[in-house]
Fold this sequence. Notes:
The chain is built from 14 helices and 13 strands. The protein starts with 6 loop residues before the first strand and ends in a 7-residue tail after the last helix. Helix 1 packs parallel to helix 12. Helix 11 (279-288) links the parallel strand 11 (267-270) and strand 12 (293-296). It has 386 residues and is an alpha/beta fold. The structure holds nicotinamide-adenine-dinucleotide (NAD) and (2R)-2,3-dihydroxypropanoic acid. (2R)-2,3-dihydroxypropanoic acid binds next to loops. Its main location: other.
Amino acid sequence: MAKPxxxxxxxxxxxxxxxxxxxxxxxxxxxxxVEQDCRVEICTQKKTILSVEDIIALIGDKCDGVIGQLTxxxxxxxxxxxxxxxxxxxxxxxxxxxxxxxxxxxxxxxxVGNTPGVLTETTAELAASLSVAAARRIVEADEFMRAxxxxxxxxxxxxxxxxxxxxxxxxxxxxxxxxxxxxMVEGFKMNLIYYDLYQSTRLEKFVTAYGQFLKANxxxxxxxxxxxxxxEVLQQADVISLHPILxxxxxxxxxxxxxxxxxxxxxxxxxxxxxxxxxxxLVEHLKxxxxxxxxxxxxxxxxxxxxxxxxLKNAIVVPHIAxxxxxxxxGMATLAALNVLGKIKGYPVWSDANRVEPFLxxxxxxxxxxxSIVNAKVLGLPVSRL
Length: 386
Ligand SMILES: NC(=O)c1ccc[n+]([C@@H]2O[C@H](COP(=O)([O-])OP(=O)(O)OC[C@H]3O[C@@H](n4cnc5c(N)ncnc54)[C@H](O)[C@@H]3O)[C@@H](O)[C@H]2O)c1
Ligand SMILES: O=C(O)[C@H](O)CO
């Protein structure tokens, strides 16, 4: 029998019951639900990762929709519980939804939402920050300073890598990968090599135009290349950032063999999902190659790190904060709430999940649509004409 969970309730007499498994930033998402006759219940349990049992208890006997988190296991058990409670909608408060079994949701006719776009630039900025921090050894130097070890400028103190003129490699040049590539190309004048299953024409045009601009101003132009294989990126790039989705094709994409083909002084950044990298192999590679550096936002067995990683000076580790800017997190909460609300109210699905800005403007009411439902096609949901 699941233990009772503590909750905070808004608009107790609302017609539709919407549950959020976590308190989320901002109040707009709550107001939007309340204005549309929802009773909003927010789980305030002091437990970071809720179990399936905890969430079943939250769903209860009657629940129209749930906003959940990437730490939760949304599979057959939870979708059947939600369906039994009359629920028709679930939204992750995240763009990645590898924690969700979409086939199970389809089976129960539950719409699955995610939150693309609003976190693109914020996540790319963290990947760029980790790239610079790793290349220039910023965290190591900070620790050295705080430890009182600095006793004067030295020619060899914390020498790192110059980014300008080097090659940045992007694996998974979707929304975030492309935004990161633009930052590194424009900000540090790096050349680009990328690998994705699809061509990113917009990104290529951007780099071409920027290269022409630099040339017209008497500077060396930047270049781009779409690699035929991921291995080409790993072998040629000086800084490599991983931005694919996590699925069967990207699990352990970076393994022992591939690490061995990378440059000895390369920088590897992961802001996608932990299991994209074989972390045990990475720890061994970092030990063997002290000038190889990594910046990691995500880990294979979150919240844990593989043994040895925390002791390595050539690794920068942060706790899955890539999307953690106030604007983005509030926007993610809004998109997740509107995904659920849209399905409850029978609204159509927004036609372009890459253009969610109209939902984020606080000065106007959001469009009457669900911003992003990943299984809309399978469920045969209508698409907005707006
Ligand atoms: N660390 C964080 O806090 C954080 C924040 C946001 C997103 N993410 C992760 O980043 C991922 C990407 O987000 P996005 O909005 O850019 O998604 P996106 O769908 O726009 O981009 C993903 C790209 O990966 C490519 N891809 C898929 N399989 C591939 C493969 N086998 N090899 C190479 N490329 C492949 C796709 O073609 C696509 O272009 C999310 O799924 C999520 O897991 C993490
Ligand atoms: O997928 C996502 O959205 C992140 O991991 C959290 O922002």
